[in-house]
Amino acid sequence: MNKAKVFVSGIVLTGLAGIGGYYLNKARTSPKTGVVHHDGMEIFKAAQLNAGMQLKTHLDSPVGIAWKANDFAKLGSMFGLQKSVAENASFFQASIYVLDVTKMDWKPEEKKALQELQSSIAEYIMAKRERPALGPEAQALSYASKVLLKFDSLPEAVVKKMSDYYSVATSEGLRNQRDIVGETLMRISPLPEKGLKIIREKLKSKNDPYQGIVLIGQMRDAQAAAGLWNEVAVGFESFPSRFQPMIFKQLVIRHSIIKSDLSGHLHQLLKYSGQVEEADDAFLVGVRELNMTEKYRSEIQLIYNQTRYAATKTLAVSLLNSSGGAK
Fold first, then answer.
1. Most buried residue, 30, 38, 87, 98, by CB count within 10 Å?
2. What is the model's pLDDT at position 56?
3. How many CB atoms lie within 10 A of CB 280?
4. Rounded average pLDDT per 10-residue block, the chain, 327 residues
5. CA–CA separation, 62 and 102 (whole Å)
6. For residue 228, how many C-alpha atoms fall within 13 Å in the half-sphere facing its CB?
7. CA 314, 320, 321 angle in degrees (round to 5)?
8. Secondary structure of the chain in the HEC alphabet?
9. pLDDT value of position 269
10. pLDDT value of position 274
11. In 3D, which of 218, 168, 160 has the Cα closest to residue 192?
12. How much is the pLDDT for 45?
């Protein structure tokens, strides 16, 4: 069996930094109650130690050992409907952690067994249950989906099964399972036709098309995402006006992959200036990204003078200062 290489992932480091920052800040801002508090750095070090212990615990657990040994038969026996919800959640959580911090190296002859395991995980998500998957069980299914998303790709047969399931699992009792399958389909790469269809349907929503925008931002298929961003840009005027500022902001920060001209929408955003916070923010971001500060200097100055929002004021003054200073 190949040995897996262990490394500390960016996710772990980011999470650890967040924990440390939280405790450092907490230590500085706690009121003086007469109780002796630990120094913030000591708490941060304790968090580091705890993270290291968790890493060792997961890697040395039966789940970690099985993953490192590429023992797919063993892994397949650790979850399923015959297990309790808690056991399933524990298996998939541990798998997420191990796959995050371990660079797996699978031999060609092992890939078939890996694909069978991926298929078993997908089948577990879609399996018929006596009751709707709610609460802890829905969470376990979500963990299972995240495990599938740890792989570079999924077998075509698995993708087809999940696509077919999404099409037919329309009853209310299957809502959570269907949603989790849909989320998986939208985030795998290459993006399957069903995943593309789901996102396009979200974008057509009159109540909240922005959920479709969020989904594009989460996609792993960069080429498919670029195509969708350009579709959104072409159809920008068709989106409800209350969502246009937020959608424009997402488009303009990706202007390098947008084929159509976005600058014409800046005048539209000015119509909502002073009325909708997102409009001023989106306008300023657009001016910055499209390098149009000089053309809209007076409008930027007006926003700077009138806005009630600190973040918007900060962005406005940064643009003014980059072009000669605020008045």
1. 98
2. 58
3. 30
4. 45 44 44 46 51 61 93 97 97 94 86 96 97 97 97 94 97 97 96 97 94 95 97 96 95 97 94 83 97 96 92 95 60
5. 15
6. 29
7. 85
8. CCCCEECCCHHHHHHHHHHHHHHHHHHHHCCCCCCCCCCHHHHHHHHHHHHHHHHHHHHHCHHHHHHHCCCHHHHHCCCCCCCCHHHHHHHHHHHHHHHHHEECCCCHHHHHHHHHHHHHHHHHHHCCCCCCCCHHHHHHHHHHHHHHCCCCCCCHHHHHHHHHHHHHCCCHHHHHHHHHHHHHHHHCCCCCHHHHHHHHHHHCCCCCCHHHHHHHHHCCCHHHHHHHHHHHHHCHHHCCHHHHHHHHHHHHCCHHHCCCCCHHHHHHHHCCCCCCHHHHHHHHHHHHHCCCCCCCHHHHHHHHHHCCCHHHHHHHHHHHHCCCCCC
9. 92
10. 73
11. 160
12. 53
Q: CB of 225 within 8 A of CB of 212? A: no
Query: Residue 71, exposed/middle/buried by CB under 10 A (0-12, 13-18, 19+)?
Result: middle
Bridge-partner residues for 5, per DSSP? 103
Contacts for 178-186 with beta carbons within 8 Å, 24 or more apart? 180/125, 180/138, 180/141, 180/142, 180/144, 180/145, 181/125, 181/126, 181/145, 183/145, 184/125, 184/145, 184/148, 184/149, 185/159, 186/215, 186/218, 186/219
What's the confidence (pLDDT) of residue 200? 97
Q: Which residue has the tokens 């959104």?
A: 232
């792993």: which residue's tokens? Answer: 220
d(CA 168, CA 164): 7
- The structure tokens 């087809």 sit at 160
- Nearest Cα to 225, choosing from 236, 235, 237, 213? 213
Give the residue from 281, 275, 272 showing the smallest Cα distance to 304.
281
pLDDT of residue 275: 75
- pTM comes to 0.77
